[in-house]
Design goal:
Blueprint (H helix, E strand, L loop, with lengths): L1 E5 L21 E9 L5 E4 L4 E4 L10 E7 L1 H10 L7 E12 L5 H9 L1 E8 L33
Parallel strand pairs: 1-7
Antiparallel strand pairs: 1-5, 2-5, 2-6, 3-4, 6-7
Length: 156
Amino acid sequence: MARVFVYGTLKKGQPNYKHMTNTAKGLAKFQGRGRTVEKYPLVIAGKYNIPYMLNIPGTGHHVAGEIYSVDEQMLQFLDEFEGCPDMYQRTLMRIQVVEWEGKGSTSEARAAADGVLECFVYSTATYPPEWVGLPYYDSYDSSGKHGLSYVLRESR
């Protein structure tokens, strides 16, 4: 099992969360909530209002999201879904645990108790330069006050 941190449309209550609960695509078990240890710019960009975490450590905010434990099948699905490695790149990042529900190995429980876990995150280093000038968010909600509702793939 691998740990994945999601900060956008795959979170609970967001437009693509259904993929995280579709066992035909693999297993994803919610473990808790966290935020990036380093600051990153989280922007909403493009004509479909897609959330992107730009891989510029030290700029932006500590981005909030959810931690999942996923099997290999789900990880492969997420790579494909996220357009990895072209649109997003899957990298390891340090995530500060804010709230932990996960049950698992004692080493995992100890790591969570320490407060920091290494998780895979889909961020991007391949973005148009003007995205750096977009507003930065610390948390994503498709129906947030930014007014930039995400456009589902099936509606594009």
